[in-house]
Design brief:
- By secondary structure, the chain is mainly alpha-helical.
- The protein has a domain at 24-59.
- It is built from two helices and no strands.
- The protein has helices at residues 29-42, 46-59.
- Helix 1 packs across helix 2 (46-59).
- The radius of gyration is 19 Å and the shape is elongated.
């Protein structure tokens, strides 16, 4: 390894804004089964499908329909 590196010509990472943060979330078993079935039919990992759905909801500013009983 070098003692010093020259980063004066370095460029920023174009994907840095799209980095993902791991979180713990509790989902219903039926919800996970639904997304896993979708993943099997589309070939997209179920966690990616959940992220895509949540990103679409956020982009469209969807609000959940809550009905307290």
């Amino acid at each position: 390894m070098r003692e010093e590196y020259d980063f004066t010509t370095a460029t920023t990472n174009p994907y840095a804004k799209r980095l993902r943060k791991p979180v713990t979330i509790r989902l219903d078993v039926d919800t996970i089964a639904y997304f896993k079935a979708q993943a099997a039919s589309t070939g997209i990992p179920y966690q990616t499908l959940i992220n895509l759905y949540l990103a679409e909801c956020a982009a469209n500013q969807r609000r959940p329909a809550l009905a307290w009983t």
